[in-house]
Amino acid sequence: METRSQWGTRAGFILAAVGSAVGLGNIWRFPAVAYENGGGAFFIPYLFALLTAGIPILIMEFTIGHKYRGSAPLSFKRMNKKTEWLGWWGVLVAFVISTYYSVIIAWAISYSIFSFNGSWGTDTEGFLFGEYLNLAEVPGQIGSLVPGVFIPLIIVWAVVLGILFKGVKKGIEIANRIFIPALVILFLIIVIYALTLPGALAGLDAFFAPDFARIADPDVWVAAYGQIFFSLSIAFAIMITYSSYLPKKSDITNNAFIVGFGNSSFELLAGIGVFAILGFMATAAGVGVDEVVAGGVGLAFVVFPAIINEFPFFNEFFGFLFFASLVLAGLSSLISITETYVAGLVDKFNISRTKAVLFGGGLAAVISLLYATQGGLYFLDAADYFINQFGVALIGLVEVVMIAWVLRELKGLQTHANGISDIRLGSWWTICLSVVTPIVLGYMMFGLFKQNLL
Ligand code: PHE
Ligand code: NA
């Protein structure tokens, strides 16, 4: 049997984990979620979710990967023969996410190029949906491949699979050592530029204005937990996979804090940049910031191009910076999602990494072509909806309940982590995982079922 691959350096592991965490969720999801859920006041439930669920689960997953030294299915199997399925569930969700996450990166590549000559024009909505995606009239109708999406999509997969072929140290680690510092620099330039725009302060005022009354609303807490789960890439088998490549002597707990706070810092930075820009737009149009707020695909591919058209100077350069950062943030996350099932296949079937990348990644790439058709956006919406319902919170809930209550593994994991980490895990960690998190996630799932069934 081959010996397990390893990260070359501690910084390499941290950058790769931060690379997985920092993604589209930070740039287009967080600012809108925070704004809609109490603005400045949202930071209270958000920090609570980070400290009681985000970082504790991150520590738990890092410890599982490190202790059992396997991809998620193998680690869970080594923990207890009966729990291998839990790992495969995460792997399956990761696989589905990768099929559409790759498509969004492909759009961002096209838009980086369109930035240079403003070829999205002024009717940005018409351009995205009409011209670029060439959407079918009827949802469910596949239609033909859209060349503008197809070509960049092939590039995305070629880059990701190329990096994964090279392995953990020479591929994933080196890519993140380049992508993440580059991303931080590009994004800092964006934020500094954005803050100089007229109206930027009005945007920040709107973003940070606290609406403390909202804290009493349980939905706001649910939103905070949902954001933390998606944003930290936890409960998807990813962080277990990455930590299985750590050397024996590794300070897991400290690493988890660095990754958790690093991701949140980037989220805050993105919130400031996005709202400074929305403030500019609102001021220029003479309307309130609330009239221009958007998130998701609409923010990145409709609202932002429209605003960038109006910038007083450097439009093309700025457009390129923004979409290039989406590409870098997205690629480093896609690498981690894809590695999750590559590692699962290698461990399960004892095949070479090259074969696993070809089969697993190749299959995902072929499926992703479905979203490059004229029906693409409809399928993308459906997949994303499915994942949000049956992925994120549900796996997280099952995972903590199994480990804390069914297998009673928390103590063992705690001892393992404390044996190698500077920060000692006390009873706060066990209480967060066995009581606080299951209650909040249980409540979340109950709400989801009620909403869908009644
Ligand atoms: N954490 C990434 C983000 O914030 C997204 C992601 C989710 C990546 C799930 C991998 C798995 O965008
Ligand atoms: Na994130």
UniProtKB/TrEMBL annotation:
Keywords: Membrane, Transmembrane, Transmembrane helix, Transport. The chain crosses the membrane at residues 12-31, 43-64, 85-109, 145-166, 178-204, 224-245, 266-289, 317-344, 356-380, 386-407, 428-449. InterPro entries: Na/ntran_symport, SNS_sf. The keyword Membrane applies. It comes from the Bacteria. The keyword Transmembrane applies. It is found in: Membrane. It holds the Pfam family SNF. PROSITE patterns: NA_NEUROTRAN_SYMP_3 (PS50267). It is a multi-pass membrane protein. NCBIfam families: Na_transp. This is Sodium-dependent transporter. It comes from Oceanobacillus longus.
